[in-house]
Every structure is written in C-alpha cells, then in structure tokens.
Amino acid sequence: MAAELLQNGDFASSTGWTLGDQWGIAGGKLTRTSSGVGEDSAEQLEADLTDDLLIGTTYVLVITIDSITGGTVRPWLGNVQGPKLSEVGTYTIYFTPTDVTDGLRFQSDGPRSIDTPLAVEHISNGDFSGGDTGWTLESQWAIAGGKLTRTPGTGDEILGSELLVGGDITFTGGAGNWVPTTGYFSTATGVLWIKETTSAGGWGIADTDFSAVLKDNTTYRATIEVSNLSGTMPMRMDIVGAATYGPSFSNVSANGTYSTAISAVTVVGEGPVLRIRKDTTAGITQSCYLDNASLKEVTGYSPTGPDTASQVAGDLAVAFVEGKTYRLYFTVDSISGGTVTPSLAGTSGTAVSAAGDHEQDIVAGASGGVIFSGSTSLTIQMDDISVLELVSGLTIQMDDASLKLSGVDAGEGQGSIDYDYKVTCEICGFHFHYYEVRKNWKNQWVCKPPAGNCYEARHAQDFVRAKVDDAVDIIARPEYDWEFIDESPTQDDL
User: Fold this and answer.
1) Can you say how many angstroms the Cα of residue 340 is from the centroid of all Cα atoms in its chain?
2) Cα angle: 248, vertex 253, 256; to 5 degrees
C-alpha cells in the first residue's frame, strides 16, 4: 500500500499546513470563511510532505467537503490544476505533475471579501424622480417632491399609562362651589385634590401628584364619570396653565362617562394642573357625583389601513435570487414616533429609528420585492433607495485529505477527477474513464490495461537506425609504373 504523503491530512493540527488569512484548522476541519482579506489558499509545501514528489508520477488526492457556499475550490498538485469543486461530497482526483515545487494547494476561485457589491441596481425609481412609478403605496405613505413619506394613521387613539394617582374619587355638587364628600381632603391615597375658590368653581390635582410630569406640545385624553346628576350642568375638564384648554362637555344632562382631548401646547405655572370645573360663572343649583377621573397621554393613533410602501417583484429593475445576499441602501431625512423596518423577498431587515444613511445586508427569501413597514405612530421622510447584490466569497469546510502514489497512470497535464467522465477508445470504440486511457505513439487516445488492451508501446525496433558504412582504406599506395626492356639488362640497368 502506498504511503501517505500529507502531514495532518485529518487536520488534527495545523502542523505542515501554510494557511492564508481566510483559512483555518480547528476541530479536525480545514475551513475557509469569506470575511477576511489576504492570501487565498491553504497549502502543504513540497518540503512539508512526508516524502518528495516525483515529476511525471501519478498521485491520487482524496478529499471530503462537508459544506460549501459562495464559490468553488480548486486543488493543485505542483503545476497541475484539478477541477473546480462546488458541492458537498468525497472526491478522488489524479495528478501527474511536471513541476512539483509548490506541493499541494487548495485555491479559492471565489472573491476574497463579502464587502464588494456588484454594480447592478435592482430597484427602479429609487430616487423617486419618477413620482410613484414602480411603487405600491398603502394608506399612510406618499411620494412627493422626490421623497417617500409616511404620516401616522387617524384611527383610534393609543393611550399611555394612567397619570392620575388616586383618580377613583367622589365629588358631590351643590350651589356655587363644589363640596367634596367626607374624607376626600385626606392625603391617605398619596394625592390631594384641591378646591378652587373662583366663582366658577372647580377641583384639580397638583402637578406634584402626577405619576409623570406633563409635557409640552402633547395631547392628553381626560375622562370623568358623572352619576347622580340632578339636572343639566355645563362642565369642562382642562389643564390650568396650558396655552389651550380642553373643550366643554357642553350641557351634561345625563349620567355617564365623558371624555375630552386636551392639547397642552405649553404647560406653565404651578398649582392644580388638571381641573374639573363648571363651565359658567353663574350660580348652579344642580348636583352630581364625579368619579373615576383619568388622564392619559395620547401616544399615537392606530392605522386606518395597510401600513407599507413596497416595490413588488414585477416592478424591480432586476429580480432577486433566493439565497443570495443583497445590500440595501436608503436615506432617512427625518423620523419620529416609531421605526421603519425593511424586508427583501420575504426576509426582514433591522428596524431603523434614526435619521441618516443606512446600509443593511439581507439574504433574499423565496419571493417578493422590497417592503418598508412603519410602526403605528411613525412619521418619516426617506430618499435614495438602492439594492445591489453582494459578491459573497467562498465559505467551505473540508475533512480527511489524503495524498498517495497512484497505481493508475493518469498521463501528464490536467488533474482528473474520478467520476463518470468517459472517453472513447480510438481503436476498439468502447468507453472508458479518463484515467483508463492514454495516448499511444500514433497520437491516439486508447484504452490501457487493466481496463483495455488497445494500448501498446512502440516496438523497440522502430527506434533502430542502421549505421552508414564509410569504407575508406586505412593504408593506400599508388600502383607502380613498371618499365619493361627487351635487351638483356646490364649492370647499369640495375
């Protein structure tokens, strides 16, 4: 069995691994998040492997991806790149590097940061220069002057807590001034009702005995219960020292509960603040009991209808895609009385209660457009609404990496993955996995053992070349030119 070449392929520690800023090892996992900026790879250098890599040798990498979103990861061995991986699963990948300097590397092919929005606008008429074109406005919303505005509804009042301490009192009426029943000058309940000595007559409660201080420019709801009425009596409730007074109940001619809104524009002075008085200076002989006095702040009004401003999916410049992250920009020029909450394709954002420029990152839901929902008492003016898609970087968790010598010769070049990728043998015509074929000496992709038998090495005799026989005499002499004589030779001829 081939030996393991990776250190800490189970990611028990980071020993042997060189990690970029976005990568980390913890809990037996190799992870990458899209929040960092910096080097974009996790690698084990050739020097950190347990043995040297060999050029031209096929290796097999097995890696498990537990989770992956926002991009792809590509493994490299030496100078050979593997396929882009974008799904959960276990992968077997073959490499035959021709340069092994870099060792094994996992490279993110996604962007390095989630902070970069794509310059594709999804909102139409976000500056409202086209009026209400593209926008669906419900009752409290309007577009005018290039602004989106909302004012509270005019439905039922929304009342705060009770401001009177000891409002459960009883008065009896008589000629001239009011006369309290026995015991109601007592401060035992923590409140002292004070009798006015004006000719009109009246009773009030001092501001020091309220459960909260009355506020300027605020509307209050005052209520009193009348019983045992002996006739018709003019009556009103007001706030002494306020610039405006509560309206008269007119002529109270029947027992029951009476109520009035009191607008305290400016609260000044001291002494009795809430006053229940006869609305005349003439002497009155009628009598009644007054009970269950109440004073509450009007904090708002319930909506009279739907409460949103929206741009539906069909009016968007570009539709949203479920699961993608978008950045919503909008400007709040002024806001009071509540909050506005945006939502994008069914996913709610964060409620906003302050003026200024706002940004929110929202993951799109299954369907829909952009909606702004106002709380009940909200008054707001908005402008410059924009939505851009964010480029979300790769987030991945990997496990159980292994790198070994392969018993399969994948051939030099592109890293191949062990999955159903078929090649047709150019000799027999059958289909084989990529790693089951190789080029022969005639440049054909053919099946090789053990999967097939069409591959054959080029015969050695094809490489035999005869030597040229250059036959040259090593020693050569010219032929002697013999001279023949007819006479018998003499001594001089010799």
Assistant:
1) 18
2) 85
